[in-house]
Amino acid sequence: MRTDPMPYLRIISDPLAGRGSALVISLLLCIAIDVAVADTAAGVEAFESGNYEKAYEELMPEAEAGDAEAQFYVAKLYGSGYGVSENLDVANQWLQRSAQQGYTDALVGLGYVYSNGLGVDVDKERAVELYREAAQKGESAAQSNLGLMYKEGEGVERDYQLAGQWFRRAAEQGDVVAQTELAGLYYDGFRFEQNLRKAAYWFRQAAEAGNAEAQYALYNMLLQGLGGQSDVVAAYTWARYAAEQGYPGGEQAWEHREYFLGDERERQVVRQVEAEQWPELPSFSAREAAELKEE
Predict the structure, then answer these.
(1) How far is it, in rounded angstroms, from Cα 279 to Cα 283?
(2) pLDDT tens, position by position, 267-283
(3) pTM of the full predicted structure?
(4) Contacts from 4-9 at CB under 8 Å and sequence distance 24+?
């Protein structure tokens, strides 16, 4: 959105005329802002539909006028080479301009750029600063990435407790990576509370969202009875889901299913996966699920 779309307009000094001019100017400003928003929205829609040339035409004027969202999408165009020649330097310049206005997606994107050295020198500390700024605004991807930085000790001192706190904030918003990471912390219990029921709960949330790593983790837990529940059919159903996504552990488990499944149980698994039904286990009562989320 333009920050000062019509800077040359001035209100004249006459009190009565001033009121009229102010009203006209206010209306003109509203119209200009509405047009800018509409142009940016049209550009975003074109980007999402794959019409990158039109996206560039719509977004570039708004980006140059200071619209943070438009600047972010122009950065994406240059960073991916969609509709324009790929240019990481230009992409990062637009990303920087958007991030300077506090646009959360740009903060996360620029954090990723610095964390991975995409067109810039690797700067983990700067990445943490950017992730933190977006995370404090409630952006789940930033919270998840910040959790990973604390878990791995990149750009900050390693701290599993802080990692868990950020993972939880993102997991509660449905971030699948954070759900899987939080479950892993509860499962391993390394410098973190070990709680297999919490691990199973968060693995299940991620597994139902299609995360193959979480699906394979549930296979292991149910096969071994970890977390208080055991079921071979449910275990191999999760393994089959993971295998169908090409997850190596899931593929290996399914290859050796004859050691645990008979023909009838295998048919049960296949029917359930073909029907796209999740296994009943692990299961949680509404009360237990609420308690596990709140703890």
Answers:
(1) 9
(2) 999 999 999 999 999 99
(3) 0.84
(4) 4/66, 5/29, 5/32, 5/33, 5/36, 5/65, 6/32
Closest CA to 212 of 170, 162, 254: 254
Per residue in 73-117, pLDDT (tens digit) is 999 999 999 999 999 999 999 999 999 999 999 999 999 999 999
Does pLDDT of 43 surpass 50? yes
* DSSP codes joined into one string, 79-148: HHTSSS---HHHHHHHHHHHHHTT-HHHHHHHHHHHHHTSSS---HHHHHHHHHHHHTTT-HHHHHHHHH
Structure tokens at 215: 């699906």
Nearest partner of 38 among 61, 17, 6, 16, judged by Cα: 61
Q: Which residue has the tokens 């499962």?
A: 187
Cα separation of 62 and 59, whole Å? 5
For 213, how many CA atoms within 13 A lie in the half-sphere containing its CB? 12
**Extents of the domains making up the chain:** 1-81, 207-295
- Tell me, rounded to whole angstroms, the distance of Cα 124 from its chain centroid: 19
The residue type of 34 is D
**33 pLDDT tier (thresholds 50, 70, 90):** very low
Q: What is the CA radius of gyration of the chain?
A: 25
